Amino acid sequence: MTLREQLQEREEAVLSPLACRSARSRGRARPEEECEIRTAFQRDTDRIVYSKAFRRLKHKTQVFLQPEGDHYRTRMTHTLEVSRIARTMARALFLNEDLTEAIALGHDLGHTPFGHAGERLLDEVMPGGFAHYRQSVRVVERLEKGGQGLNLTWEVRNGICCHTRGTPAATLEGQLVRLADHIAYINHDIEDALRGGIIYPMDIPLDVSRMLGFTHSERVNTLVTDAIRASQGQESIRQSPQVEEAMLTLKDFMFDSVYTNPMAKGEEGKAQDMLRSLFEYYRAHPDELPDDFQSIRAEEGVDRAVCDYIAGMTDPFAVDRFQELFIPKGWTVL
Fold first, then answer.
1. Which pairs from 190-194 meet CB under 8 Å and 24+ separation?
2. What is the domain-level CATH number for residue 172?
3. b vs e for 1-38, b when ≥16 Cβ sit within 10 Å of the residue's Cβ?
4. How confident is the model over 36-50, as pLDDT tens digits?
5. Is 24 inside a domain boundary?
6. How far apart are CA 11 and CA 305, in angstroms?
7. How many domains does the chain have?
């Protein structure tokens, strides 16, 4: 018996009846020989972590554009926090931690440079619109590994696609990542906004603090513990009504005070203008797209190729390309 088979037997014996077993996965788009050591979901986690798209997350905006300081979140640190929160809940609910981790680590692979400002811009200029969760699926199915994709299991791709809105994921693990994503970003965005002087502790609604806690760790602990208690033995991931209401109030507060705050978001218009210029330039000069995107151009059109290229850029790379294309260079005599 291989180690993978032993792990699959352990899943059968230990996990909740509601958990997704790796041995019962719907499989991959392209069938592969099984690994002797790792389960299917463990392999998916490794493929995501070793992907180029995952490495680029460290230079993509979470909320604050190019903040001065080492302690503000990036899209990478956000992803890691989502993974930790999700795995904690999965372990407590006896769900599949490996599937949970793979979905969490892959959920934002398709995010744009400059956070949601970049996403809104691509949604505006791309025919048919743009959403980062759909792009994340496209990254793992089409763009990685020179156009071959990562060939992940159906459950991981479904969880990635359903992590933001719309129809809940088909697995409890995928539903759990959606909630973990919300818990993570609301709370770490509060911490970053406090650090940046955008808000102050007394600005947070008192009723929310009394329900969830007055510190970052208290709020996260309350939200995680509540979700575990409310979801035990249930066929969906849930929150208690009072905690869910407090979390929604906190989210509304963040949109009013941070996500639309000119002090925090004043540079977003410049970032969007830059990305629009890049989109229009490469649409007019598609021969200048890198070789990796020429096959997409041939098969799916120029707009799709340009969108994929820009969506995959990091913040500093987008700035460099803009400077290279639109900012005059200094002239010197050799």
1. 190/216, 190/219, 190/250, 190/254, 190/258, 191/216, 192/62, 192/63, 192/64, 192/67, 192/72, 192/73, 193/63, 193/254, 193/257, 193/258, 193/264
2. 1.10.3210.10
3. eeebeebbeebeeebeebbbebeebeebeeeeebeeeb
4. 999 999 999 999 999
5. no
6. 41
7. 1
Asked whether the beta carbons of 276 and 117 are under 8 A apart, the reply is no
In a domain, 193, yes or no: yes
If phi over 0 gives left and psi between -120 and 50 gives alpha, with beta otherwise, what is residue 69? Answer: left
Structural domain includes residue 30? no
Range of the domain at 237: 40-263
| Separation of alpha carbons 99 and 159, rounded Å | 9
In a domain, 175, yes or no: yes
* pLDDT (tens digit per residue) in 199-241: 999 999 999 999 999 999 999 999 999 999 999 999 999 999 9
